[in-house]
Amino acid sequence: MTTIHTSKSTPLAGVSRDSTSQIKTKHHVQREQTAEFVKAEIFDILAWKNPTRSAFLFGCFIIGVYLTEYYSWFYLGSYTLTLIIGFNLIVVVVTHLCSKTTHDKLANNPYRQILEDRENRTFVNKKSVLHYVSMLVDILEMMLLALIDIVCVKDNKSSVKWLIISLISLLMSSFVSGTVIFTWAIVVAFVSLPIYSRNQALINARIQQLGGIVNARL
């Protein structure tokens, strides 16, 4: 009985292992595709491939950093909602008053078309939401894996590099506010790549020259 049971379970175990391996491979490929997509998008933004989008995001980041220093997200959300509701309420009331004064009857709600179309319109595309949620999960997973590699010292040079960056950030945060640090980080990110692209040959030559001087002194 034991022999028969073993001969039947072995092929199933092999199929299960193959299936698990295929799932892992597919997940790995999907994660790599997400990484390449994110890198390309970030490069396009920082290289100002689309100046309008880059300028908009740059402005949003800077404004967001300074707003969140003085106001909470809850306050900003409530303030925005109050402005929108108040403005629309004024528009509706004024429209009704003007119509009643001019034509002696109430006019239709100026947002009537939106209110009528809301039942037949799909405001949230479920496929798009699932796609971006899946992409977000892949990005978070990649960040977690990279953090594990750094913390567990998978590569000595990489861990030393991030140790130095972390130490510099720690020292800077003792003397400079987080707002200033984030502002300069955003400015450097959006400015350094275009400058490097325009002066690539000169910058590479200076880096090689500096590297030669350092190696000579060592």
Topology, element by element:
Elements: H1 2-46, H2 51-70, H3 73-103, H4 112-117, H5 126-151, H6 156-175, H7 178-198, H8 200-217
Pfam families: Reticulon
Membrane topology: Multi-pass membrane protein
Region (Disordered): 1-25
Short descriptors:
MFS_trans_sf; single chain; 86% helix; endoplasmic reticulum; disordered N terminus; membrane; 0% strand; transmembrane helix; 218 residues; transmembrane; mainly alpha
Structural account:
Its main location: endoplasmic reticulum. Residues 1-25 are annotated as: Disordered. Residues 1-10 have a biased composition (Polar residues). The structure is a single chain. The chain is mainly alpha-helical. It has helices at residues 2-46, 51-70, 73-103, 112-117, 126-151, 156-175, 178-198, 200-217.
Range of helix content: over 70%
Total count of helical runs of at least 4 residues = 8
Strand portion: under 5%
pLDDT averaged over residues: 80
SSE class = mainly alpha
Number of extended strands: 0
Unreliable residue runs? 1-9
From the spread of the alpha carbons, the general shape counts as elongated
Q: Assembly type of the shown chains?
A: single chain
**Alpha-carbon Rg, integer:** 29 Å
Rounded to the nearest angstrom, the distance between the terminal CA atoms is: 74 Å
Secondary-structure element pattern, one letter each: HHHHHHHH
**Biggest β-sheet strands, sense, barrel:** none
